[in-house]
Amino acid sequence: MDEVEVVVAHSERATLRVGDVFLKVDADQARIDVEVEAMSRAPVPTPEVLWRKPPVLAIAALPGTALGRLGRASTGSSAAWTAAGAAIRTLHDAPLPSWSGRAGRSVATLAAELDDECASLVTRGLLPAGLVTRNRQVAQAALRPWTPAFTHGDLQVAHVFVDGDEVTGVIDWSEAGRGDALYDLATFTLGHEEHLDDVLAGYGTGVDIDLDVIRGWWSLRSLLAVRWLIEHGFDPFAPGCEVDVLRSRM
Hints:
Elements: E1 4-9, E2 13-18, E3 21-26, H1 29-41, E4 49-53, E5 56-60, E6 65-66, H2 78-92, H3 107-123, H4 129-139, E7 148-151, E8 160-163, E9 166-170, E10 177-180, H5 181-189, H6 196-203, H7 211-231, H8 242-247
Antiparallel strand pairs: 1-2, 2-3, 3-5, 4-5, 6-8, 7-10, 8-9
């Protein structure tokens, strides 16, 4: 019998692996609805849905391995990062879904959330005030009008699988929807700034890529993540992770 591996688990959801099957347990059925619908629409490889019995979604494992992990140097080739950039562009050029995703929050909503979180980080003593203030300034560049695209919404590098130089699939679509394409590019390269040029080479031309906006999203995403990660048993202070991303902007 295959062993049960806990891939990730916290108070909102859990993912287990049994052999070549992943079991996603999520009490929020709307989130699972989005994931299944987004995978059916996305013009890039996604895991096969094996069955669904609320609150569990069973999907097949993808071939290959994750392109990287936050906090670890990626072993993927430059060509693999370029191929990932091309896959992201294919997604962003696809017909828009009918719903807004995580990357589609309004500028006003996001700014209010960010200001509240920055105040909380300082008040609770989680981060130095100077570090928070500087990154709030950098994050401002991301708070601007954007043209909607079909976005993944949580495109961490660990969610993109490759085999050699080819993308074999993208996982974890629960935050997908209409959103800011540069949010996906920033999330994908968070903590892996050295691969941004490769990603943009694959992403191609015809789209205005403002590097200040990408840097803004690096700061913004990290600021919003620190407290949540701590409260859910993760370590944003680990080398190469969110706090180091914030420090790199100083």
